[in-house]
Each structure stands twice: as C-alpha cells, then as structure tokens.
User: Fold these one by one.
Assistant:
Number 1:
Amino acid sequence: MTTTLAPRRTSPLPRPGTAAPAAPARAAAPVCASSPRVFQDPLLEEPPATGAPAQDRRRYADLVADAQDACQSCPLVVDCLYRAVVEHDVAGYVGGTTARQRVEIRRRLGVVVQPEDFDTLAGVLGGSRPVDHDEVLRVRAAHPDETLEVLAVRLGCSLSTVKRHLRRERNQPSAPRPVAVRPSRRQVLEATLAVTRPAPRGHQHAA
Ligand code: SF4
C-alpha cells in the first residue's frame, strides 16, 4: 500500500497566463508572516522520513495543507516561488511547494542554486530577523558550551536554522556554482504545475 504524506490537492499556483491572486495596491504582506505556527514549525522544514510514526506524518500533512491555503491566498506567490526555485535553496514550504518538489522543479529546468536559509527569503518570516551563515558560526565559536536552543535565542532565529547552518558547515559544501539556466517565470510555473499536479488515484506517493 502506498502512503501519502502531503495532501495532493489543487496547486496553490495560478496557471501560466492567468491572473495571480489579488494584485497588491501597496507593498503586499506575505501571508506566512501572520502564520508562524505553520511556517516556523520545525516539522514543515524537516519532513518525517519514510517509516516515521503515522502521527508525525499526519501532522506534517496537516501543516502542508495549511501552508497550501496560505500560499494560495498570498499576493506574492509567483515571485516567492520564482525566488525559491531560481535564487534561494531554502527549506520548508515556500511559494506553494515543498523543498522536495522544488528539487524536482529545478531538475526539470536545469537550475542549480546554493543552499540558503529560509530566513533569507525576504518577507517570509513573521518576527524573526534574518541571520546569515557566518553569524551563526561566529556565535557558535564565541559560546561553544551553550546549547543550540540558547544559540537560537541569541541569534533570534529558529533551532532548525541553527542546526542547518552548523550541518552545512560540517558538510563543507562545494564552492558556489552559478545558475546554469535562468528560466522565465512562465517556465517555472509550468514546471511547478507539472510537479505538484495530483497523481492519479492509486499512484500517489510522498511529496
Ligand atoms: S511562502 Fe511565499 S507564497 Fe507562501 S505565504 Fe509566504 S510569501 Fe506567500
């Protein structure tokens, strides 16, 4: 029997050539900024692995459903998706897509980006300030005996953000590579709709 982690519902994205959600009259506010309970939940950034307890998988599916609803009503969704696919490799649910879906979208488009932090995607965090990689390393070096929770408080970011930066440092990522191809917004939308399209009944799999 196959398992569905994330609900495969209608994509929160507008079809290419159709209008995006309500055009902002002034600087539009990201809907996720008012939903920190959903968008800052560590489970949304690190989905449960195959074989994780059903309770975690159910909660993850509920979080994704709530995030889908938020992105669907967000006036920034097209720009947000484009940046999350082409410019920033961030974690979590962003621009109507999961991190795994964005990997597949980039693969289809031939796009390569360096890993970054969710916090650097302007406007998608409600309350926390941006924090960069070097700053996390500096604070870690200055306070080697403190727990990661305390470091997160010092930095004003989430625990998962601290963990991700330290993991990235441990893995010593290769030098930044340029974006091989810079696709158009339409190409990103089309690839996204292809990737997020609900699977036929009986062929659903984890997203
Ligand atoms: S993740 Fe992007 S599209 Fe979704 S609510 Fe936040 S700013 Fe809007």
Number 2:
Amino acid sequence: MEEALKQVFVPFVATPGGEKTQLGVFSTEQDAWDVMRAFLAKAGATDVVSGSIVAWEIDYVGEEGSLELAAFDRSNCPVCDEMSFWVEGDQEKARCYFPRCGAWIEQNAYDPSRWDCGWPAANWNKRAEDYEQAYKGLVAMRAQSTSAGMTSRMASREAWLDEKDRERRTIQQNKFDAASNEMTE
Ligand SMILES: [Zn+2]
C-alpha cells in the first residue's frame, strides 16, 4: 500500500513587483527542486528576481501549514557578469546558470568550516573560509582569466564574443591580404 500523502511541494518565482508564478505542485521535494532548477536555467529571458520552494501540510487546520524550504535571489555573476547568478537562502550556496559559465559557491559537505567555489568553464576550483571569501575567489578567477587571455576557453559571453570578433577580423584581414597580393602580383 502506498503511504498517504502528507505534504506537497510548491516551487514558485516572483518578479520585482512581487507578482508570483507557481511552477507546479509536487508530491516529492526532489521533483520541486528539479522543476525549480530547470526554471532557473532558463530564467535569463524573464524578469524573475526571486524564487522559493514551500512545503504544504495536507489536511492541516490553522495558519502554520506551510514551511519555506529554500529561497533563491538573482544577482550579477562575479565571473560572466550575466544576471544569472542565483544565491540560495542567506548566502548558503550560489550558482550561475548561464550555460557557458556555471560558476558556483558551496559549503563543503564534509567540513563545515570550509567553503569551495569553482568555475567549470575554466576548470578551476578554489577553497575558502566563508561565503564572502569564496565570492572573492570567483572575482579573482575572472581577473586572472582576463589577464591570461583565456578567450579560447569561452569562459564568458564577453570573452566568447571577443574571440568571434577576432576570428571575423582575421578572416577579413586574410581576404584583404589575398586581394592585395593578387593586385601586386
Ligand atoms: Zn556566470
């Protein structure tokens, strides 16, 4: 026999004006998280600035039938500068959902005194003492990549566009060279 449903999980998102959009109602917390993450991954084109996952007790009488399990706030990514950096709770975790970036900050699962941050696009990881320091770690990664000219890694949109621009100019230059060679020959 299946266990009776006691709780449902509701992910929702909100705009700066406080207008809320519910993303569904789920019988497991995992499903609510999956739907929330899928939304955040595509939130770039929306004006959503916050989100939350709420558990609701079923057949509950009274005011305290719901509990917020997680809250998300949108901000600027310290690495790629896109508005795709989602901070969880009171700076408990953060992740950039911009596909070519993916920068993240997280408390170490085994050692609570340790924080980790990373930038998958550049294959970099760093450890830190707290969230603040991990955030600075990401800023430093960006600075380092800029000075190292890591454009070929497509680390950020800016870098990627720069790279494309350079390729285009090189092609044009080559065409120009070829044309002028023909003229002088
Ligand atoms: Zn980013």
Number 3:
Amino acid sequence: MREVCYCGRTGEIEDREPVIDGEGGALRCPNDECGHVDYLLWLSPENRRIVMKEAERRSGLNRSTAA
Ligand SMILES: [Zn+2]
C-alpha cells in the first residue's frame, strides 16, 4: 500500500514507523523534519493489530542491531 505524506514523502506504508498510542496504533513519518503521525482509525481492527504487533516488535529490538 503506497501512501503520500503531506511533507511530500511517498513510499510504502510499511516504511513508516509504527507507534502505539492510546487508540491502538499509529504510523509516524520517518522523515525527522516531518514526524507526522497518522492514527489508524481508518484501519480495520485486524489491520490495526498487525501494526501494533510490528510496533511492539520494533520497540523490542535492541538499538545496537537497528543501526
Ligand atoms: Zn511526512
């Protein structure tokens, strides 16, 4: 799924950094100057779970392996 951020970045939605928020998941733009967070209220609960799992997986990674 490709999407366009308002900062002009385009790419796969999976490239964005998943974060967990109170509503159950969001994607943050990897562009540091943007940092736009999209909440995933438009996603189905099933897809939101996938994003949350990815967020948990990434947050569990040791930064030494993330370069
Ligand atoms: Zn952006």
Number 4:
Amino acid sequence: MLQSHLHSLIAKAHRYQAEPERFERTGQDPLQVMVHGANGDHQVVLREGRLECDCDGFAHRGERICAHVLGVEHHFREHLPPNAVIWPFAAPAG
Ligand SMILES: [Zn+2]
C-alpha cells in the first residue's frame, strides 16, 4: 500500500518536473511558489529551511511531502537550502 502511494506520488512529481509553467514564484524571501496543480492551485512556502505545502496530501499521514514540494525542489533547487524536502520513508531505489 505504501509502495503504490509512493509510486503515484513520484509519477505525479515527475509530471510536474516536466511542466515548469505550473510553477509561479510569488515570493522571494522566503521563497513562495504558487503551483497550478492538476486538482487546483497550491501554495508552497519555504519555512525554517523546509518546504511546506497547503494541500491535503502534504499533511496526509504526517508525511509532509507531496508532488508540489517535490516539483518546487526540482525547479527552484538553486534557491533552496539542502534538505528542504525530507523523504519520510527510505529513498526509492532507482
Ligand atoms: Zn502539495
């Protein structure tokens, strides 16, 4: 179950990584990005060195990760501190 959840999260994140037009920077310091997601807009903010998202998936089971923060990490890598996104489970192989 965890595997398939993880799998769909990664598939969605990859889609967002291929579509930079979904990511609109709305704030500089701290970094704030509006993500025009498949199911609506979501706000991702850099807070205390970590990316946080306002979507339901982010808070889901306390994982604190979602396709939006993964997309922001990908597109704004050079504006982020290391470990702005922490994987709550072991990093997937491959
Ligand atoms: Zn999100």
